[in-house]
Every structure is written in C-alpha cells, then in structure tokens.
Q: What sequence folds into this?
C-alpha cells in the first residue's frame, strides 16, 4: 500500500479534511505542520479542535473559511 492509499483510508485524515471544509490552503497548512512536527492526523485533529473552540469563544463571528484558516495558523503559531 502506498502512503497516499494509507492516507485516503485513514478516518482521521478524512475527518480533518471535513473540518477544514476542503480548503486547499488550510489543508496545505495542516499538512506542512504535520510533516515538520511529525504528528498524526488524530493528534493534529485534537490540536485543531482545541484551537477552534478557543477561536469560537474569542471571535464567534468569523466565517467558516476565515475560521478554518485562522485555526490552522494558530496551531502552528502555538507550536512556535
């Protein structure tokens, strides 16, 4: 099985893409983080959920698009 086939069958990878509304920039940002930090889809999804909930408390009026991008950037920023 190739790496791509493994990713396509990973339920956490699918869940992450759904959470990111399929937005290419958000997916790319998440992928870059996971590659450089060497974390799993499940762990990134947990980090994303935590950051998303914090964003909802502080900026509830952001659109889904803005929220997805902000949240992926915030996960990276928190790591730095």
A:
């Amino acid at each position: 099985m190739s790496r791509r086939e493994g990713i396509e069958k990973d339920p956490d990878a699918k869940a992450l893409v759904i959470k990111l509304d399929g937005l290419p920039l958000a997916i790319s940002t998440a992928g870059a983080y996971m590659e450089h930090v060497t974390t799993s889809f499940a762990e990134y999804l947990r980090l994303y959920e935590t950051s998303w909930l914090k964003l909802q408390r502080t900026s509830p009026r952001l659109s889904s698009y803005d929220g997805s991008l902000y949240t992926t950037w915030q996960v990276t920023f928190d790591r730095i």
User: Anything to note?
Assistant: Helices lie at 3-9, 11-19, 24-37, 41-58, 64-79. The first helix runs from residue 3 to 9. The two ends are 34 Å apart (CA to CA). The mean pLDDT is 85.
